[in-house]
């Protein structure tokens, strides 16, 4: 054993091993083995900036393994002190754990009791009788655990009780466990070197030339918030304690960070120079040399720039004459040299008032003036198109206003402004001329749907669509893509072409397109007019305000509280509730969807309606199913009838005026002729309307296939109309095929066969 080893209660010499520390920093640690009722310990020292293992950490580790090393505390302390003092490894040393006699366990709560405070932050042990002469730790721990005390147990008190039961412990409350109080976390804190001073740049602080290995900043890491933990083990968060915040420095050239044993982070310079702190977040070192300067021109050689850096212990001062001579050697023209600012800066540098000079102009030539490049002026519609809709009170209704412009053939898109040819040559600091550049034409490429007018300067659209500009290419897109929602940022959209909306159409914003419309989200309370096909991936929630008109087919996830009309077919994935849905072809719900249901709707189709369920078992929402009628013809007939009534009223008024004019003595022939011409036109309009109505009525007489498929069930409160036949559902019907029987003049029900193809 070395002389440095202190006297121990046991002989540790046989268990000391040599130790080869790892390359990186590491903390001390302990390995535990349990064999033949003997505990063997191997304790490793720390390396680098790591922390040595202390007695509390070791006891905690033993406790987690189920050991209570009460008789071995002195030995354990000796082992840890030896490892730390000699920086050696102690391997496989046996520690004799006392064998306790569990025959004397105290089971009665009358002999030993436990009291827990109302706030559960402390627990007390009460020994009620002097008949107990000896206790073992496991007895006490079991009693505490049975009472619900599992945290904050004072093991030192437990060990003292097991050694000696003094007279004063009987019938007295012994504080045996204490809970953990909450504590707020602390933010990371920086402490910078006192030599930092504010520079001319308000965002920077600087230290004068500083030697290498100087600690310029310290960081106290954040501490985590500590939660309250009761002696019964429950852990609670304190709502009034905020989380601590961490922050760090961004390290640049010449600075490294290093963690101390106590966890403090120090920031140390590794080179000599000026330390710069920017925005209290960035740390770097500008290297310092004894005397060093450079002379260099800018990119076009119209300026000569001077840079210099010097150290505290320089050999000599900078010489203005030396710098001037160097400038002449470079060939710089004398008339361009200006050393006024340089002389003042060099004086400050030599006095130590400043540490460096950067980018100082010492000669200046004549910069060339280039001609102005041509440019492209785009239509104002591209920058800000606002088709503003005003309310009666003068305010703007953004929902009805449109901010996306659609171009039509002949509309101006852009105009090229030719370049300015005026230019002026320059001279560099060496007296050489610098050729100025002429203005250049802007690069522009005509894409699809655009063309030049005869002036070759004006670009116009040759088709309907929206202008798309990608680099130099300008073109017209027949498809308008809205990457997000249709909302206040877009306004309502009226587009000549197809329209794709990646998001939702919000309440109050309308869509109109001459092509197809695709909405990948949902549609709210709005009006949509589509001359092509309409696809709404999620569905329509119209809030009793939505109106959807489509010349083609409609595909929707669901339809709720909306009016939907299509000249083509309507395909619905899930449900339709409290809506009016009209199709000039068919209405088909998804066969695979379990939510294929109609509740409280008016459905009208010419050929076919195919649905999973109509109504619910509870009832309450009546649905009307109409087949064999073309709603478009019905609406057209209604409009014709209104015009016939109005035209008939005009005929009556004109005839009364004619009769009145005939009764006037010497009537004006021009007035009479005027009334006759009006009558002739009105009669002709009336005849044309009547002929058109007869044609519509004949087409309405041609009924559709009138097939109604219910794949699961139809419940009461539903009514069916096919041609002139009506049927009220009074009893629930399972899966069935509903159709008209012209011979029997009624609506009949057939069994539905899922394997059969009905259309």
Strand portion:
25-35%
Mean pLDDT: 82
Could you say which structural class the secondary elements and strand pairing correspond to? alpha/beta
Specify Rg, calculated over alpha carbons: 48 Å
Shape verdict:
flat
Describe the structure.
The chain has 759 residues and is α/β, with parallel strands linked by helices. Among the domains are: 13-95, no CATH class; 102-178, no CATH class; 189-287, no CATH class; 291-364, no CATH class; 375-477, no CATH class; 634-701. It has nine helices and 54 strands. The strands form ten sheets. It has a 24-stranded mixed β-sheet that branches. A hairpin with a 3-residue loop joins strand 17 and strand 18 (282-287). Helix 8 (631-662) runs antiparallel to helix 9. It is flat, with a radius of gyration of 48 Å. The protein starts with 15 loop residues before the first strand and ends in an 8-residue tail after the last strand. Mean pLDDT is 82; it is low at 1-8 and 98-108.
């Amino acid at each position: 054993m070395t002389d440095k080893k202190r006297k121990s209660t046991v002989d540790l010499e046989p268990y000391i091993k040599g130790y080869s520390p790892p390359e990186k920093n590491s903390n001390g640690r302990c390995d535990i083995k349990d064999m033949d009722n003997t505990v063997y310990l191997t304790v490793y020292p720390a390396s680098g900036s790591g922390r040595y293992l202390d007695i509390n950490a070791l006891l905690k580790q033993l406790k987690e393994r189920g050991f209570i090393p009460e008789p071995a505390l002195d030995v354990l302390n000796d082992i840890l002190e030896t490892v730390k003092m000699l920086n050696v490894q102690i391997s496989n040393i046996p520690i004799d754990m006392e064998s306790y006699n569990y025959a004397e366990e105290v089971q009665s709560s009358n002999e030993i009791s436990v009291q827990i405070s109302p706030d559960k932050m402390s627990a007390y042990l009460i020994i009620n009788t002097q008949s107990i002469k000896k206790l073992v730790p496991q007895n006490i721990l079991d009693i505490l655990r049975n009472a619900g005390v599992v945290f904050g147990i004072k093991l030192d008190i437990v060990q003292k009780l097991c050694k000696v039961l003094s007279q004063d412990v009987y019938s007295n409350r012994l504080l045996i466990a204490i809970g953990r109080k909450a504590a707020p976390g602390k933010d990371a804190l920086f402490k910078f070197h006192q030599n930092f001073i504010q520079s001319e740049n308000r965002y920077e602080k600087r230290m004068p030339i500083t030697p290498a290995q100087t600690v310029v900043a310290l960081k106290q890491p954040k501490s985590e918030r500590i939660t309250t933990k009761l002696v019964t083990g429950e852990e609670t968060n304190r709502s009034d304690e905020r989380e601590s915040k961490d922050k760090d420095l961004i390290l640049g050239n010449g600075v490294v960070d290093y963690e101390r044993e106590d966890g403090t982070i120090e920031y140390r310079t590794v080179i000599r120079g000026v330390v710069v702190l920017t925005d209290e977040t960035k740390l770097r070192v500008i290297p310092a040399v004894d005397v060093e300067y450079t002379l260099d021109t800018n990119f076009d050689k119209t300026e000569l720039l001077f840079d210099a850096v010097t150290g505290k212990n320089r050999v000599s001062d900078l010489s203005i004459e030396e710098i001037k001579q160097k400038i002449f050697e470079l060939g710089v023209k004398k008339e361009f040299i200006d050393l006024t600012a340089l002389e003042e800066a060099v004086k400050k540098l030599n006095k130590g008032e400043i540490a460096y000079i950067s980018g100082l102009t010492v000669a200046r030539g004549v910069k060339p003036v280039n001609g102005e490049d041509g440019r492209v002026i785009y239509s104002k519609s591209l920058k800000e198109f606002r088709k503003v809709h005003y309310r009666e009170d003068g305010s703007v209704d953004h929902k009805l206003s449109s901010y996306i412009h659609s171009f039509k053939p002949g509309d101006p898109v852009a105009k090229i402004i030719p370049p300015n040819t005026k230019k002026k040559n320059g001279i560099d600091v060496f007296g050489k001329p610098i050729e100025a550049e002429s203005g250049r034409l802007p690069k522009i490429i005509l894409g699809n749907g655009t063309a030049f007018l005869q002036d070759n300067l004006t670009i116009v659209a040759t088709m309907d669509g929206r202008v798309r500009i990608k680099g130099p290419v300008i073109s017209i897109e027949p498809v308008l893509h809205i990457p997000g929602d249709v909302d206040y940022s877009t306004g309502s959209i009226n587009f000549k072409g197809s329209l794709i909306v990646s998001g939702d159409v919000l309440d109050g914003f309308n869509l109109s397109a001459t092509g197809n419309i695709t909405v990948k989200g949902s549609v709210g309370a709005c009006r949509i007019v589509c001359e092509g096909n309409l696809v709404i991936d999620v569905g329509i929630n119209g809030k009793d305000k939505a109106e959807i008109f489509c010349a083609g087919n409609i595909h929707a996830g669901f339809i709720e509280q909306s009016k939907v009309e299509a000249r083509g077919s309507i395909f619905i994935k899930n449900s339709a509730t409290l809506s009016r849905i009209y199709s000039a072809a068919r209405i088909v719900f998804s066969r695979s969807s379990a939510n294929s249901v109609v509740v409280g709707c008016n459905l009208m189709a010419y050929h076919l309606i195919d649905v999973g369920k109509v109504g619910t078992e509870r009832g309450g929402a009546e649905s009307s199913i109409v087949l064999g009628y073309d709603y478009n013809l019905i609406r057209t007939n209604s409009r014709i009838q209104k015009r016939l009534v109005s035209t008939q009223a005009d005929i009556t008024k004109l005839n009364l005026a004619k009769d009145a004019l005939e009764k006037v003595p010497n009537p004006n022939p021009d007035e009479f002729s005027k009334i006759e011409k009006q009558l002739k036109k009105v009669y002709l309009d009336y005849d044309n309307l009547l002929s058109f109505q007869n044609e519509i009525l004949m087409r309405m007489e041609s009924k559709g296939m009138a097939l109604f498929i219910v794949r699961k069930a139809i419940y009461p409160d539903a009514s069916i109309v096919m041609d002139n036949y009506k049927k009220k559902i009074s009893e629930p019907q399972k899966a069935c095929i509903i159709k008209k029987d012209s011979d029997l003049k009624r609506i009949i029900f057939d069994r539905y066969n899922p394997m059969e193809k009905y259309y």
